[in-house]
Every structure is written in C-alpha cells, then in structure tokens.
Amino acid sequence: MEALDIARWQFGITTVYHFLMVPLTIGLGLVVATLQTMWVRTGKDEYLRMTKFWGKLFLINFIMGIATGLVQEFQFGMAWSEYSRFVGDVFGAPLALESLLAFFTESVFLGLWIFGWGRLSKKLHLACLWIAVLASVLSAYFILAANSWMQHPVGVEMVDGRPVLNDIWAVLTNNTLLVAFPHQITAALSVAGGFLLGIAWYHLWKRRRDGIDTVNEDGTVNVGERPEIGRDKADHSVWIKSLRIGAVVAMVSFAGTAITGDLQGKLMFDQQPMKMAAAEAACHDGTSFSILSVGDVGAKNCDDVKAVIEVPGLLSFLANNNFDTEVKGVNTLIPEYQEAYGTHIPDDPKYGEQAGTEIDYLPVMSVTYWGFRIMIGFGGVAAAAAAFALWITRKGTVPESKWLMRLAVFGILAPFGANSAGWIFTEMGRQPFVVAPNPSFTGIDQVFMFTAAAVSPGVSRAEMIFSLSCFALVYLALLVVEVRLLFKFTRGGVPSAMPELLSSGGHDGGSSGGMDSAGGDDGTGSDGSDSSGGTKPKQPDDVLGFAY
Q1: Spatial separation of the C-alpha atoms in residues 164 and 447, rounded to whole Å
Q2: Distance CA 218, CA 429 (A)
Q3: Of 170, 250, 300, 427, which has the most beta carbons under 10 Å away?
Q4: What is the pLDDT of residues 90-104, one digit of tens each?
C-alpha cells in the first residue's frame, strides 16, 4: 500500500468513528431539549427524570464526539496538505463560522446548562440548552456546507489553478447542501429515536423480570413500586413515555430521511452520475432499479454483473421523476469522463507514484452498491421496529421475552449502521476525485481535484502507518471508555443521573417532584431543602448538576 492508500484508510476510519457520535449528539440533544421543555411547561416529575437521564447520556456522547472530532482538522495539515492548499480559500469561511460561531456558542451554553441546575431560573436554564442544541445543528450546517462544496463546487473562480471564493452565499445555499442538511438532521433523529426505544425497552423488561410490573388478564399493565431502588410509578412512566416518544421520532424521521434522500439522489444523478450508476451496478443504460445484482461488482468493465431482481422503471423515476427515460450506465459514462478529464493522471511530481497511471473512474462498486442498500435497509428496519414497538406497548409495557429485549437493544445499532453506510457511500462514490467536477451548468466548470494530488508530498508510508496505528489505539481506548460509561449509566437507570431518588426513597410521580414553590430549579429550594419539606443530603449531583 502506498502512502495515499494508508492516508485514505486513516481518514476513513477516524471519520466513520467520529460520525458514530455526531448523529446521536444532534438527535438526542433535540430530544432532551424537548423533554426539558415539557417539564418546564407541565411540572411533571417524569419529564425532569427523562431530561436528566437522557441528558447524562447526551453529555457523555458529546464529550467523546469533541475528542474524536479534533483529529479530523489535524489530518488536513498532516496527511492532506495539498488538498488544504487547494480548498483552503473556500473552506476557510464555513469552517471558521463553524468554530467561532456555532461551536463556541454550543460549548458556552452547554456549560451553562450543565452547571446551571438550581442556579438559573427554569426558563433561562432551558433557553441555554436550546441555544446549545441549535448551535450544534448550525455547526452541522457549516460542516455540510464544506462537504457539499466538495460534491458540487460553487461560488468560486479559478485563479492560478486554485479555486478562490467570490460568493460565500452561493456556498451556503448550495443546492447539494440544501438537501443534504435536512437529510442528515432527520437521519440523526432516527438514531436518537432508536436509542430511546432500545434502552427504554430494556428497563421496562427489567421491571417485569424483577416482578415490579405485572400484566392483568386483559393485557394491561399493573404498575408496581420498589422505591428503595428508585423503581416507583414515575420510573415506569419515564420508560414507557421514552419508548413511545422514541418510536414516534424514529418513524417520522425515517419518512423525512426517505423524502430528502430521494431529492438528494435526483441531484446526484445530475451532479455525479458515475456515483449513482455504481450504486445501482447499472453497467448499461436502462430504466430498471436493481434490488439484487450478482457477479464481480468490482470488475472494471462491468461485464460480469447481472441483475437478478429488478423493478422496471424505478431507476428512471428516482433519477428523472418518470418511468421511461433511460439512465446512463457505467459503460456509457466512462468514455464521457475520459474525454472530459483525461485517461491518465498527469505526469507531474505532485501526483507521486500515481503520476502517469491510468485513471479508474469507476468507484468500488461492491462498496457503493451494498452501502446504498444497507443505508436504506437499516433505516427501513428501524422504522418497522418502531411501528411494532408502538403497537406492542399500547397496553403500557413490553413482553417478558428476553429475545425481544435483546433485539430491541441491538436494534439501536440499525440507524447507526444506516448513517455510517450513507457516509461511506457518499465519500467513496466520489472517487477518484476528492473534489468532484460539475458535469452540469448548475456548478462551476473545471473545478475538481484528483485524490492522488491531495495527499501531503512529504509524508512517507512508514509515517502514515505509525500515525494510523496510534490513532487506532487511542480510538480503541476511547471506545472502551465510552461504551463502559454508557453501559454503566444506562443500566443504572434514572438514579444514575439522580442519586437523590435513592436517598429520599423515590417520588410519587406527582407534579410536585421537581417544582419548587419558591422558584428554585430541580425541586430544590435556595437552602438545599427538598420541596416536600425534608432536607436532601448534599451529593455531587446537587453541586454540579450532572456530576461532570
């Protein structure tokens, strides 16, 4: 493997790893802010508990997302310096906006939210969370603006062989961005929905296993209590509401993802036709969508690929909104790409060992073809599971089946898989370009960069192997830490975020828990007393809000 190959593996591994945290942070943040809004509006204790429990998991994931995300920007300078020189004039604006405007706002107000429990008024405290969460959404917008420019360059002019920004508004309103952003936000919400559903199912099942909740003859739940371990009636309300909210979020977000994904696909057929042809293993022109193709999908000439199951007219509809317009296949597109961008990498030292080699315009079809289907399939499975969960919990609890519980917990991974597969498809389908050219009038012609030209010229194969190994070890350690933290606080339930529930014997689920008549936040008065009249022991959670 050359330094270029190892650099691509390194960026791919670190990016996909980081992206495991991103959709959960965005989606769960929006859910937690909504839950706290419900608590402020209604004063119901279960919404306070939900806010604190899911808020703790949100913060664990947020912190890990920051730690893993920092690596991405360093790689631009370490392994991809030529790329940085090429796109630097364009990327400077959206990335600066992301750091200086969105990320700083997000960090400041999230800090106020963490340490503001009991110190800020309820509405001001809630406003801090909403500002932080919306800033994270804005941060995603600016990052996607940069990525969308790589998919579809706009708002620039070429000066001495480099794109120079002349219209920041064009970059921030790129049509690729305007469909990619809602697609990503709805995909993030699908991750949050599955996360709530799986964890809540586990706790409802645990209540049944421990004999706390039973089922009446008509199938309705008989909610029990064991307040000494924090398993009171409000605890049941926390989990059944979390499950059903998660299921609704998962179903609605899947619909949003499907609609925005269709719009995004139509743009890609216009802007990156080779990517979409590879996604369909469409070697020849046609109108049929391949449900299943077999053969050597990595073959350069596509001759060995055969469609086993296909839907006539569907590919044409996905690309053109009709059922009879033929879509260009790989064998038609390759000569067009060769005529427009050449048959060989230029014989220039900046291309290193790739200089003068033949250009392979066909992405790895096994990755694009199956990545596209994994993305759709896992998303559909998650939505179907959410619909099933809504139906089976209509009487207030989950079945006693241990296998169903395990499926619900492992089902948390489905939307994560859909998100990761979608990103892998999007980025690998763009090859051999790191900045894709525009074959249509909607972009700027002749703005593109081969991936072979983007890697740092002074980086050796040994250096890349060393850095990749170091990143892999660090990321493995971070993965162990995050998984252990998530498992620890998930298994601990609400008391893991509110230890005072154990010391005070739990609440009765009424609206008084969490609403102080004196105006204090989180059910505590200014003197640290419980709103019920007792004195709460000073615990770390009382001092720091979430013990962070």
Answers
A1: 10
A2: 53
A3: 250
A4: 988 888 888 888 888
